[in-house]
Fold this protein.
Amino acid sequence: MAQAQTLKYSTFLIQIGSGLPVVYASPCGLNSKGFSRTAATNDTNVPDCDNPDAPSWLERDVVSLSGQMTGSGVVADEDFDVWNDWFESGASKPIQVKLGTRTWQGNAILSKLDVTAQRGQRVQFSATIDSDGEIVKL
């Protein structure tokens, strides 16, 4: 049996684009990252025509797709304004998610930015980035 080929933390990047032409960069400070995609569905209850009293099965149709990126870590003072300015602008920005040799790209909104601190520890933050339109695999 061959051993699985795994990826290191450094090969998973959440990058924010700026400027024209767009330049992508990963702000410093993230210690955890996530990328999830969701399909919203509509359910239809389809009866058994031969036995109307039998439990029916649900059939589902995908009606929309969305993506979400999350991250948390320490507030890197040199890059925190990237996150804060994005949040305060309410703007949709170009983003990229890289996972090994794979890249997804689209626009997104920084929908949540939390800053927390505990005595005796460094200031932490977390961010939630929601897709604004299609996220495509390049």
Remarks:
- The chain is about 5% helix and 55% strand.
- The first strand starts at residue 12 and ends at 18.
